[in-house]
Amino acid sequence: SLMLDDLKKATLNADGIKWGYELYQTNKTANTHNLITFFVADDGIDIIDLQRYREATQTECLIAINTTGKDYDCLKIADNVIDCLPNEIELAIYSFACMGNGDGFMGIDWNDIRTAVYQRKSIKFIHCHAKGEDCVVVACEKLISKLKVIKSDKALKSLMVSTFADDSFDFEKQYFITEKISKISDVDEANIFYQIIFTDEFLYWQHN
Q: Could you tell me the pTM of the whole model?
């Protein structure tokens, strides 16, 4: 796993207790405090064991990953559901978990993330990537085309935009993204959240 090991990064709450993000698996040892517990929905999920893990880890938000569009029984206990493609599971979890870790010059507060999670029980994950001199422009064009498809299908309550870039990324490029998103989106600007994560190696895209 190129990314999920990084979920071990944790944040301290006011009492000095480490809270992190974990991916649930059957019979997983509950030895952490979780801001978010993710699980991949399918017919084989043991709901009783998932509830055990949720309670033992004091999970604040239980988020299901649905790659099929099927209405699984286990989705009923989730606080929210991320819809994505099967090959996007790892990136969806990693992107969402990185939103509150404060590794960039622009971050999303945990309270804003939690508010977005509880606003509506549906999160649509989309991602785009590009390389080269015009990578920001190309990636934005791809993102906007996907956003248009979502807008035609359902009303959006909020947007969480996470950008992964190297150290050449600057405020001018972020401003370009912000302007493009605001023009295409009907979402109130107060409900659009941005996060920038600096990384030297884009291992996910190198392997996918």
A: 0.78
Contact 36, 12 (CB under 8 A): no
H or E element, residue 17: none
- Please provide residue 140's backbone torsions phi and psi, each rounded to the nearest 5 degrees: -65, -40
For residue 176, how far is the Cα from the chain centroid? 22
Alpha carbons 67 and 78: distance in angstroms, whole number: 15
Rounded distance between C-alpha atoms, residue 88 and residue 79, angstroms: 20
Q: What are the tokens at 116?
A: 């977005």
Q: Is residue 116 within 8 Å of 160, Cβ to Cβ?
A: yes
Joined tokens for residue 153: 């299908």
| Residue indicated by tokens 């870790």 | 101
Q: Specify the DSSP class assigned to residue 207.
A: H
The answer to whether 1 and 94 have CB atoms below 8 angstroms apart is no
Q: What is the mean pLDDT of each run of 10 residues along the chain (208 residues)?
A: 48 56 87 88 95 93 94 94 91 76 56 74 86 88 85 70 83 89 83 78 51
Burial zone of 94 (CB within 10 Å; 0-12 exposed, 13-18 middle, 19+ buried): buried
DSSP string, 16-54: S-EEEEEE--TT----SEEEEEEEE--TT--HHHHHHHH
